[in-house]
Design brief:
about 160 residues; four-stranded mixed β-sheet; 3 helices; rod-shaped
């Protein structure tokens, strides 16, 4: 082997050693980035699990409340059926018609001269008409048309 070949070989070994060092640096950088990415994945996974736990809890609460609402609706429907049987058919028909037109509320309490259906106060003429009506007469609000339910708190 000639000195020139030896020199070229040494130069190539040095070049390869430098290249190996550069590649090792790249591998270390990639490993560090991978480690940081893995930590981020772990953090995000924990956050997703926490959010999912909150979602699951909210769904469980929603389902419980819906079950309560369904039970209450069934109870109220049963009670309504019992009460509806004692109401004259023509009054029940009027109530159902008004309820359909007025967003589900066909009758409203008259409280301190105010219809609780439309929240408007009856004028003095309307109050006098309601006051003069027989106790079993069906009285309606002039503003919203709902049946007015008179009580001791009606302000008459």
């Amino acid at each position: 082997m000639t000195p020139k070949d030896l020199e070229n070989l040494q130069h190539e070994v040095a070049s390869l050693a430098k290249r190996q060092g550069d590649l090792e640096d790249v591998v270390l950088e990639i490993m560090e980035r991978r480690e940081a990415a893995q930590e981020r994945v772990t953090e995000l996974t924990a956050r997703v699990e926490a959010v999912q736990a909150k979602v699951d809890a909210a769904v469980a609460r929603r389902d419980e409340v819906l079950a309560e609402i369904d039970a209450e609706a069934a109870k109220v429907t049963k009670e309504r059926g019992l009460v509806a049987d004692s109401v004259p058919a023509d009054l029940l028909k009027l109530y159902d018609k008004l309820r359909e037109k007025a967003g589900g509320v066909g009758a409203a309490r008259l409280y301190q001269r105010r219809c609780e259906g439309c929240r408007l106060e009856l004028n003095i003429t309307e109050v006098n008409e309601v006051r003069a009506a027989a106790a079993d007469a069906v009285v309606r609000c002039e503003n919203c048309g709902r049946i007015l339910v008179r009580t001791s708190e009606s302000g008459l």
